[in-house]
Amino acid sequence: MTILQALSGYYDRMAARGDAEPPGFSREKISFAVVIDRDGGLVDVVDLRDTTGKKPVAVLRDVPAGAKRTVAVAPNLFWDKTAYSLGVTAAEGKRTAQEHRAFRDLHAKLLAESGDEGLAALRLFLESWTPDRFTAPRFSTDMLDTNIVFRLDGDTGPNGKPRFIHDRPAALPLIEARGVAGNAIHCLVSGVEAPMARLHPAIKGVDGAQTMGAALVSFNLDAFESYGRAQGANAPTGQAAAFRYGAALNRLLDRNSGSRVQLVAGAHLDPSRRRSREVRHRHRFRLGDTTTVFWVDGSDVGEEEAAAAEATLASIFETVDRVDDDHDSAYAAQVRVMLESLAQGRPAAFGELRIPPGVRVHVLGLAPNAARLSVRFWMTETLGHLAGHARNHAADCRVEPAPHLWGAGPAINRLLVKTTAAQEKWENIPPLLAGEMARAVLGGGRYPWTLLSTAIMRLRAGDDPGSGWHAAVIRAVLARDHRLGITKDGAPMSVDKQETNPAYRLGRLFALLEAAQYNALGRVNATIRDRYFGAASATPAGVFPLLLRGAQNHLASLRKEGKAGGLERDLEEVMGGLATGLPRSLRLEDQGRFVIGYYHQRAARFTKKDVVDEQGNDDASN
């Protein structure tokens, strides 16, 4: 199934639950309504913005689909920003008069023969309106450059609520007529004959893209065209199909959209001990510069089951990093049980619902590219397979002890910001790496090799190898390749004294030499880790002889205090496994094993308790 076909299918789910705008409409941010009487006279201006927050915010409303604008003047039908609709703007507005004239002429032509009192009133208003009437008290500077609609005074819809002129029955044929012109083609999305969409809908909500919207399908230069076809003819798509996929994708990208389902914690307990809450999740999340949306193919399940499956899928992406109380702990535990059930091919219980593991889900990653969108990744999988991939990801990343603030398992973004981003800033996550990482986690394939190289590069740049985050992602790369049969050797999850890999043992050795320095000298301005970690992990033969000579002085000081026993035993054990000597250099994957060995041994130093040396002294130095 293609991206556009899957999005067109999601539009059917939206329509079934009453969330889809009708054909010919789109959801736009509307701020004000101009109320007019039947003679076209101004009655009032109504503020439609949401004023519950600190600052008024425009609300999304269904209006006739906006015109596709590049540099040409193109007015919208029955609504527009004030430059078009009223001829006023806060900017310099060199062509404001031209834009307002185009808006007025469009409606004068379309509404000239209309006998509907609302449409006639709008035509009369535009004929008599002059921009110099935009004055207080009815009009304010807050209106400038916002989108406005029109309403006939006293007009109400079937529900008894005031309705806008574009919602009047007489307006609908005019709205539909604007979209039927075009050559009949065989639509590549629906497979039926339909009028061709010359221009595809603008997609809004992709982080970093133009706020007015960017194109997912676009042909604007000769280099992109073929066989003499222009624009939309290069990818023949019917107008109805283009509208459907555009409406669905824009709704998925809307920050205020989402599904609500009821999650019951402790469903197996006595009813008096059960706890319930409503869970709301978005259909979008951010990975580096990639805006990702996901949805469920609801053709085989009901809407409630599909929404519950999407909430389960959201739990894979929005992993809880810290659990604050027992109540949240219960929900986190239930989510883990659900994912495990799905991964094993068994239905999962979400409250009172049963989610089949075979339900199909779609994941789409989009990135900005000038006035267009780049598809970073597109995946179609069953929920059971995705849950299994999520379980494997957690297993591959696991190191013991877990890094500080690891929680129930970090989200992809948190892994990347901790291990690949300079200064741990979200905007510094390598953009291409985020998309490759998402493909690996969701699809179960290899982790990108650049994840390994970037994590090691960040350690050389000064990141703390003792945090454990870098060791976790490095182990993930090595363990995944080993599990897929690509390499013979993986990486241990916890400290392994039987591991004979020289790089791993050298990492352990470095941690012991650092412990000897700390126990002998206490805190110093620059430790051997600060000075030599990068060089020791890349060229051991050139660095470790120097470190070992320095360690003899530290151990001599510790012997005088009776504190060297434990360290010397561990040093002998590690050095005994380096019978082949110190390698001159280590490959990139072995540099990763060096990091893992260092973290394991350093963590063991802080967890070892009540070790007694030969002289009977307590020794927790290693």
List keywords for this structure.
about 625 residues, alpha+beta, four-stranded mixed beta sheet, four-stranded antiparallel beta sheet, 18 strands, about 40% helix
Task: List the SSEs and their pairings.
Blueprint: H1 3-16, E1 25-30, E2 32-36, E3 42-47, E4 59-64, E5 79-81, H2 82-85, H3 96-110, H4 117-128, E6 147-152, H5 171-177, E7 184-186, E8 193-195, E9 202-203, E10 214-215, H6 239-253, E11 259-265, E12 275-281, E13 284-287, E14 290-296, H7 303-317, H8 326-343, E15 348-350, E16 353-355, E17 360-369, E18 372-382, H9 383-397, H10 412-419, H11 431-443, H12 449-460, H13 469-483, H14 502-521, H15 528-538, H16 540-560, H17 565-576, H18 588-607
Parallel strand pairs: 2-6
Antiparallel strand pairs: 1-4, 2-3, 5-6, 7-8, 9-10, 11-12, 13-14, 14-17, 15-16, 17-18
Short structural summary:
The protein is 40% helix and 15% strand. It contains 18 helices and 18 strands. The protein has helices spanning 3-16, 82-85, 96-110, 117-128, 171-177, 239-253, 303-317, 326-343, 383-397, 412-419, 431-443, 449-460, 469-483, 502-521, 528-538, 540-560, 565-576, 588-607; strands at residues 25-30, 32-36, 42-47, 59-64, 79-81, 147-152, 184-186, 193-195, 202-203, 214-215, 259-265, 275-281, 284-287, 290-296, 348-350, 353-355, 360-369, 372-382.
